[in-house]
Amino acid sequence: MSSLIIEAVKKNLDISQNVPLKISVYEAFKKTIVLGDIPAGQRINEKEFSDVLNISRTPIRFALKELEKEKLVDHLPRIGVVVKGISRKDAVEIFEIRKSLDTLATIQAMEKMTDEDFHEMDLLLQRGEEDSRHDRIDEVLQNFTDFNAFIYQKSQMVRLAAIVTQLQAYLLYFRDISIRSSKRRQIALDEHRLIYRGMKNKNIEQITLITHEHLDRSLIFILSEMERRQID
Q1: Radius of gyration from C-alpha coordinates of the chain
Q2: Largest CA-CA distance found in the chain, in angstroms, rounded
Q3: 86-141, pLDDT tens digit by residue?
Q4: How far is Cα 76 from Cα 68, in angstroms, rounded to an integer?
Q5: Residue 190 pLDDT more than 90?
Q6: Inter-residue contact 28 to 12 (CB < 8 Å)
Q7: How high is the pLDDT of residue 230?
Q8: What range(s) does the HTH gntR-type domain occupy (predicted)?
Q9: How far, in Å, CA of 186 to CA of 155, rounded?
Q10: Whole-number pLDDT of residue 39
Q11: Which of 75, 55, 57, 56 is nearest to 65 (CA)?
């Protein structure tokens, strides 16, 4: 196995977080696979990773089982664990689903939100805009997560939120890359503000249009990044 692949996982392994080692290992493998740094078809040898990373095989085995559930790796008889990864076709499918689900959640939230809720949403947007002006990138990324979570919470559609959370997990790393670009970050913040205005004005047509444009722009960036990384 290429030492470059193991080094890529090691680079993404953050053991400083206050989480169990198995979760840190899982996140490191997932990020490395999704970003294409472990190419599709590559076999993962538990022992080799264990030796080089100087950790037991137990957290590695846990990580690979979780990734198998998420269809990012396959466990093949007499071969072992082989990376499937995520393709550009997968990304397009995920965003098509998200267009429908995000639009539905936003409209449902709009119908249920109170004046106090809209005020809270406005403050959330203001914080994101302020963080962006001062290049507090990690805070902006958290603000994007909070904005989406706020809408899904106010939609009161628990099952829908769970589905979208699972879908977002695949492409979260690409989103982080795009938001670290100041140009894309500002456009996305402006789009969030337009979604807020559409919700406040109860303009379903505007909500649908902006939500779709917002996700289309994100998808275009992700596809170009996947192409640059030579992910099929």
Answers
A1: 19
A2: 61
A3: 889 999 999 999 999 999 999 999 999 999 999 999 999 999 999 999 999 999 99
A4: 11
A5: yes
A6: yes
A7: 83
A8: 19-86
A9: 26
A10: 87
A11: 75
C-alpha 83 chain-centroid distance: 19
**10 Å Cβ neighbour count for 117?**
16
**Based on the number of CB atoms within 10 Å of its own CB, is 54 exposed (0-12), middle (13-18) or buried (19 or more)?**
exposed
| Three-state SS annotation for the chain | CCHHHHHHHHHHCCCCCCCCHHHHHHHHHHHHHHCCCCCCCCEECHHHHHHHHCCCHHHHHHHHHHHHHCCCEEEECCCEEEECCCCHHHHHHHHHHHHHHHHHHHHHHHHHCCHHHHHHHHHHHHHHHHHHHCCCHHHHHHHHHHHHHHHHHHHCCHHHHHHHHHHHHHHHHHHHHHHCCHHHHHHHHHHHHHHHHHHHCCCHHHHHHHHHHHHHHHHHHHHHHHHHCCCC
pLDDT of residue 169 exceeding 80: no
What is the rounded CA–CA span in Å between residue 194 and residue 173?
25
Q: In what order do the strands lie in the sheet with 43-44?
A: 43-44, 80-83, 73-76
pLDDT band, residue 2 (cuts 50/70/90): low
> 173 and 11 in contact (C-beta within 8 Å)?
no
Kindly report the pTM of this predicted structure: 0.81
47, HSE (Cβ side, Cα atoms, 13 Å) = 1
Q: Which two tokens stand for residue 188?
A: 């996305």
pLDDT digits 0-9 by tens, 15-57: 888 889 999 999 999 999 988 889 889 999 999 999 999 999 9
CB distance 73 to 67 below 8 Å: yes
pLDDT value for 115:
97
